[in-house]
Amino acid sequence: MSLKTATQRMMARYRKLVFMTWFLTLDLIMFGAFVRLTDSGLGCPDWPGCYGKITPIGASSHIEEALQAMPYGAVSFSKAWIEMIHRYVGSLLGLMIIGIVYMAWRYRRELGHTPRLAIVTLVAVCVQGAFGAWTVTHQLMPIVVTTHLLGGMTLLALMTWLAAREKTHAVVPVQARKWLPWMAGGLALLFTQIALGGWVSTNYAALACMDFPTCHGQWVPQMDFEGGYSLIRGLGMLPSGEMISQYALTAIHWTHRNFAFLVFAYLGVLGWKLRRIPGLEGPVQLMLLLLVAQLLTGLTTIFFQWPLLIAVLHNGGAAGLVLASVTLVLRLSGAQPTKIPA
Questions:
Q1: How far apart are CA 266 and CA 292, in angstroms?
Q2: Do 292 and 226 share a structural domain?
Q3: Whole-prediction pTM value?
Q4: Residue 217's beta-bridge partner residues?
Q5: Are residue 224 and residue 141 in the same domain, yes or no?
Q6: Active-site positions?
Q7: Which residues of 151-161 are buried (b: 16+ CB within 10 A; e: fewer)?
């Protein structure tokens, strides 16, 4: 086998690993939403195992005992399996990123770029794993769960960056770079909205307002922002130890709902202006499509009282907007993808 052929095969394997890892990251984010929305986060109330066992099968006696004590509690066989499958897939993702780092370091000359981005991604997945553990040990503390969600989106952004370097696209005209600060600002707005959405989900405030476009029949209902956005507190509680009020939950929901209109308008107008620029058509079309889908799924969760499938798709839509926005930022910045030699 010639050196040129060996290099081609190595780079092809690296590209496949990057794209598979990117796809698994997106899947894991959606499955993480499924874990959260099915109340399975404490399906195994310890970490990293399930009652000290590798699988829920070995912990069956403990799970049965917990079920008898609290039939409608956080622990059940189905929830234990949902939680542990999420952990297994997360571990697999970490191993795949280790593989990316190894190949990016060993073949850095052939790939044409340094392994720094791959190393940063490995650090990010390790931090994400730590927050996954703290989610359990801190009993679904809202600030920890929300940070875990943001960590997942950051990991997806890094994997999108890695994948974008391995994909060719039409050259973006230099004149289009004037839109880079605007797109970066849109990405910042998007992450803010995801944080607000995570805060809604982790505080179970999705149904705090059951009408639309008003909330409790008012444009600006009575709300408790101080209680709703107090960060250091347990699930369903205020820092004082009292149960969180409906006014606080309303504040959480109302803020996320109204900030969504700002994000929709900003990214919608920006996408419309970028839609015909060479090299940007694909991610722009995806962004505009997902904006409409997010609006529809967001409204559906209100009118149909938070159906599980729609809620998971809403989380997946947010992840899709992240990957589309990151791709646009990278292309506008003039980042050049790596090409496999012919």
A1: 13
A2: yes
A3: 0.92
A4: none
A5: no
A6: 83
A7: bbbbbbbbbbb
